[in-house]
Amino acid sequence: MFISKNLAVNEKGHLTIGGIDTLDLAKKYGTPLYVMDEDLIRENCEKFKKSIDDYYEKNGLVCYASKAFSCKEIYRIMKDEGLGVDVVSLGEMYTAVSAGFASEKIYLHGNNKTIEELKFAVEHKIGRIVVDNLNELELLNCIAKDMRSKVDVLIRVKPGIDAHTHDFIRTGQIDSKFGFAIETGEALSAAKLAVELDNINLVGAHCHIGSQILDVDPFVLAADVMIKFISDVKDATGIEMCELNLGGGFGIKYVDKDDPVDYEEYMKAVSIMIQKKCDQYNLNRPFIVIEPGRSLIAPTGITLYTVGARKEIPNIRTYVSVDGGMTDNPRYALYKSEYDAIVASKASEEKNEIVTIAGKCCESGDLIGENMLLQHAETGDILAVCATGAYNYSMASNYNRNLKPAVVMIKDGKSRVIVNRETLEDLVKNDI
Ligand code: LLP
Description:
By secondary structure, this protein is α/β, with parallel strands linked by helices. The chain has twelve helices and 21 strands. The strands form three sheets. Strands 4, 14, 15, 16, 17, 18, 19, 20 and 21 form a nine-stranded mixed sheet that branches. Strand 20 and strand 21 form a beta hairpin. Helix 5 crosses helix 6 and helix 7 crosses helix 8. It is globular, with a radius of gyration of 23 Å. Ligand LLP binds next to helix 10.
């Protein structure tokens, strides 16, 4: 009945998440409010880990792509689950390290890492640096030399695969700011240089073909291309890279028409291809890393809003305005991403209205969604928008000086705040 499995209706007809009444959460913590479900996050982690155990003989690591949702508590949960994490900035790296995350299980990404980021990574012995370009490779070698260190790197490769997703979130094709293209020979040249540099240890290759991919085939194709690349590097340098990182991108169900495959299907299909190609090129099967972000987190979260104004424009549309918007969820404004929504107090009722859910920013494009089927929403109702656990809090802004909502975590039928609601004082604290 609901998009995410942790949502249900209680005897009062109210929407629940992880067994807790969402109206009680709204009352206790206020709105807008992000609510996330730790039990489901852990269940998702277990599923990804099990897929590597079952289909790849435990020879791999699930790394949570923390750009999906980054705060100290999520790194603690991922640490406890035995996952690695992928970070893309000094801020994410710092948050992970300050939450006590083991640095050797951190992967640093980024297409334009700063000197400060690289220095921090070398100093804190971050496990892997995924090198994106030649400038970075040489800079990293110098920094490592100065710090009398040798760093383990992966080469970020563009495998040239069209993953049939929204242009903005597709990163594997040749016209991309990320990584080295294979077909131009750039990737091989980068690997050769990495092998020559004294303070660099080339351990593997990385690719990420896109996001919200609902198919298995692009991942299998990526594995095929990447093993061939490992073979080409071995032929050219004599070095056999022992680690293959296939990135993230596994899709989830946002709305009814999305039909994602089970997580285990990815590893199952990819493992077969890796084995076949390794046999063909006479290589050892590499250690595998996958980097799910959205699929671990998005379905576990919802956002609760209070409905304010209703505006019925005859023969045009009905606007239902909420007390948040593009500042806590910019994904409709950016990508026209679709969501399912529920009036929390009427969760067992039929959805009988088509409405546009609008935010409160001074911006016409500030919408959570258009033409959404919803129960009749009135001023004061609590509205839940589903599957907002990823790329919502992490992409939130203070536009119009709106305050970022709190994040509440649910576990074993109890709720706790994991990120405080911003205050007006927070807003002005850097102003001189
Ligand atoms: N690894 C790398 C190197 C990535 O660039 C990404 C996402 C991931 C892993 C995780 O991908 P996921 O499993 O979450 O799809 N802001 C966009 C998504 C951007 C994703 C960028 N890279 C959105 O809201 O849809």
